[in-house]
Write a structure and sequence with these properties.
Blueprint lengths: L6 E3 L5 E9 L11 H4 L14 H12 L12 H9 L24 H13 L3 E5 L7 E5 L5 E3 L6 E3 L4 E5 L2 E5 L15 E9 L5 H15 L3 E3 L1
Parallel strand pairs: 1-4
Antiparallel strand pairs: 2-9, 2-10, 3-9, 4-7, 5-6, 7-8
Helix pairs in contact: 3-4, 4-5
Length: 226
């Protein structure tokens, strides 16, 4: 069965999500990120989309709808990216790649780098998980009170109550703020699932973002399917 046949999306008045699967010809550890993608780690780079204050406010409204507060350390991931590259002068190793030391954005792997480049310029949060570390069926909906997960290798967790999340058979595994550690990509990743957290308050933006995202992956010799 096609992976997306196992995805359901709960009714939501604002959500305009785009979801697709990517298959890489080799494990991510064997696929260096092309320089053309890394050059997009700059707000000055030429891109088909540009973020702005309107995009930021509409995305926050989307994540706020269920009662979640997308501020401070729980701000949308796209805002972290914009801050990370705001005064970036060079690429340097860092943590997850969305706010490393010294305000720099680091290269993680091909899947995450393309995701981050597209999210940076579109202003839309994007989740990317290792499809083989998750378990179908998948669902997108608002997390209930008490929901939480670990989001980094240090064991830090995020309270998910009221936040739109991607769920697999084991529970929530991704959202527009921080994705779960248990389904993150690694050097061995061959298949990913991407979720663009768009809002219908920005008509067509999620679709345009998805098209560019898939074009970049195709240029990197990856195959995508909706």
């Amino acid at each position: 069965m096609h992976e997306m046949a196992n995805l359901t999306i709960d009714p939501h008045p604002l959500l305009d999500a785009s979801v697709f699967v990517t298959k890489f010809p080799r494990p991510l550890g064997e696929m260096p990120t092309p320089p053309e993608v890394l050059t997009l780690f700059s707000l000055a780079a030429v891109a088909p989309l540009t973020s702005n204050d309107e995009v930021r406010e509409k995305v926050r409204a989307l994540l706020r709808y269920g009662g979640f507060k997308p501020t401070g350390r729980s701000k949308p991931s796209a805002e972290y990216l914009i801050r990370a590259v705001g005064d970036m002068t060079s690429l340097a190793p860092a943590g997850r790649g969305v706010g490393g030391e010294g305000g720099k954005l680091s290269s993680i792997n091909l899947a995450v780098d393309v995701c981050n480049a597209v999210s940076l310029h579109s202003g839309l949060p994007i989740s990317v998980i290792d499809l083989d570390r998750a378990q179908a069926p998948f669902r997108i909906g608002i997390a209930p009170a008490g929901a939480a997960y670990v989001f980094n290798s240090s064991g830090q967790s995020i309270d998910l109550a009221g936040l739109l999340c991607l769920f697999d058979a084991e529970g929530p595994c991704a959202n527009g703020v921080k994705d779960a550690q248990r389904t993150k990509t690694s050097e061995g990743t061959l298949r990913t699932l991407s979720v663009i957290w768009g809002t219908n308050a920005l008509p067509g933006r999620a679709e345009q973002t998805c098209q560019w995202y898939r074009e970049l992956l195709a240029q990197c010799h990856a195959q995508t399917s909706a």
